[in-house]
Structure formats: structure tokens, C-alpha cells
Amino acid sequence: MIPFSWGSYTIYFKNSSIGFNTFSDDIFGIDQTPFNLEYNHFVFVFKRNQLENCKLYINGNLQTLSQRINVHNNSNAIFNNGNFILGTGNGSYNANIKTSYLRIYNKELAQAEVTQNYIWSTKIFYPFFTNPSAPEKITQDLVLDIDAGNLYSYPSSGTKVISPKPYDNPSILRSMIMPLGLSTNYIGGDVEGVLYNGVGFSTNFGGVWTFDGANDYIEFPYNSAINNADNFTFECWFKSNNIALEQVIFNTNNYGQSPERGYHIEIYQSKMILQVFPSQQFTFSTVTLQSNVWYFLSVTYNNGSVIY
């Protein structure tokens, strides 16, 4: 498969190898097996008509390249014989990959600059564990910069992506996303939760969790500030594709114990309901909900009084 290409000058995966390709069924690169099924930071340095002098950095480290498949054709190692394409090679060899962002510079980055960009990238994938003083990305000679997690670059839907100028690209717009598989148990603050059974994730709307309605959930340990509260406010955005089904959004119940204690907030008969235990007191919302509509829910409980 071809993750991206300039016409006949591409990056190519084949037979466990990854590297530079000149449309001669060739690869000048490395064995990619150690990097399977992981997020990695790749930097490819293309050389016009000099494929043998190209460079590849992975996670800031310069790799040793070799001719792994067939002989390359330097006459195809040029940049002006086709559009730049991400995800395929001129409509063929479609890539099955996940890409967070992509940048193109019109110069060769030095080792120190590659390292700086790699450290910057850790603020995306490990935002809660990275030193906030980590350096910013290199912007000199940056000619293309598309970022799936930056709402300015890609507003989470549609068919257009924008490569903004550096001064039009404030970092505050970048969703601080932690992809599942890197760390699945950190939610935020000083309370940690665990994602169970493959809770889905999408960058839409700045980042949302997707529950399959079968067995997905996020669980937090007992917390006295939450479980023993006489007064509380719960709020969230949610959307259901079948609002007629009974669906629990949040609960603190100690189900199966006697007496049952806690509360739960659920969708029931197309309305919201808050039920408190052990009294089993419940209160319906007045609004009838619709499927496939985003709602902002705010529930306030004050010693038996409920406000939606």
C-alpha cells in the first residue's frame, strides 16, 4: 500500500518493508515489523533524483536504509509529475492507516529539528504527562500543515481540509486527544477511569467517546465527593441513534447490595429520568427526545428537588 505519493515518487509498504519508492515495485527502506499496530512519528526526507540519499527518522531516530525490493529508478524521483496524495498512490494501493497530522517542508530538517518536532508531537498523544514547556513545532519553510485534531485545519466533518498559515493556527484549537491503545485509563483531573470492552473514539466535535449499546462503559472508582453527595449537578453532551431504548448514561448505584444506594441518570421512554436509591424516587424530564440529535444535558439534584 502507498500512504502518500507525488506521482511516481512515493512511500510504499510491501512484504513487511516500508520506504521510498519510484513506481518500479521497489523499496529503499527498512523492516517495518517492529512498528506495527503502534502510533509512530515518521519523518521522510526526499531527495530529487537521489533516492539512495533519502533519509527516514522514526520517533526522532535516524534509520539505516537499504534496497529491500528491486532496483529504484531515479528518473522517477521527482516532485512535479503528479499531485500530492495522502492515503493512496494515484487511486491504487490504498493505505489502511491512521494519520494524526502531516507536514511538508521545502528543506531538509536537521536532526535537532526532527527531534524538536517529535517532542512537540508527544503533547498530542500524551498531553497530560508531557512537560508543558516542550518546544513548539518547526515552522520555518513549512509549506503544508494539515492536522486532523485541529478544528481550524479540519472541523471534524465534511470533505475539506485546510493547511493554515502558522499565525492562523493557534494551538488552543487543537483537541488534546489521547488515542485509544496508547493509554486507555486516563480521563483527567485527580480521578482516573478505565475504558472497558473497546469504547470507541472519534475526533468529531473535538473528541467524543462512542458506546456500542452492548457492553462498552467507562468506570471510575468509589469517590466520596461523588457517591455521598446530597447535592450535585451532572452535565454532558450526548446523542443516541435510538432514543426509544432504555439507556443508562451515568450511575453510582451499588447494584445487588442491600440497601441499594446511589443514583442513575437514564433515557427512558424517550425522556430523561433521574432515580435515587434507596428511596427509588424518580423524576422525568418534560422534553421528549429525538434520535440522532445532540443534546446538552444538565441535571441538578438538591435534597430531593430535581431540575433538568
Write the layout of secondary structure elements.
Elements: E1 4-6, E2 9-14, E3 17-21, E4 27-31, E5 42-45, E6 55-58, E7 61-62, E8 66-69, E9 84-86, E10 101-105, H1 111-125, E11 142-147, E12 194-196, E13 200-202, E14 208-210, E15 217-219, H2 224-227, E16 231-238, E17 247-251, E18 262-268, E19 271-277, E20 281-284, E21 295-302, E22 305-307
Antiparallel strand pairs: 1-2, 1-9, 2-3, 3-4, 4-8, 5-6, 6-7, 10-11, 12-15, 13-14, 16-21, 17-18, 18-19, 19-20, 21-22
Q: What do you see in this structure?
A:
This protein has 308 residues and is mostly beta strands. The protein folds into 4 domains: 4-99, no CATH class; 111-173, no CATH class; 178-221, no CATH class; 225-307, Jelly Rolls (Sandwich). It is 6% helix and 33% strand. The chain has 2 helices and 22 strands. The strands form 7 sheets. A 6-stranded antiparallel sheet has the order 8-4-3-2-1-9, with no helix packed on it. Strands 17-18-19-20 form a 4-stranded antiparallel sheet, with no helix packed on it. A 3-stranded antiparallel sheet has the order 5-6-7, with helices on one face. β3 (17-21) and β4 form a beta hairpin. The longest helix has 15 residues, at 111-125. The model is unreliable at 167-192 (pLDDT under 50).
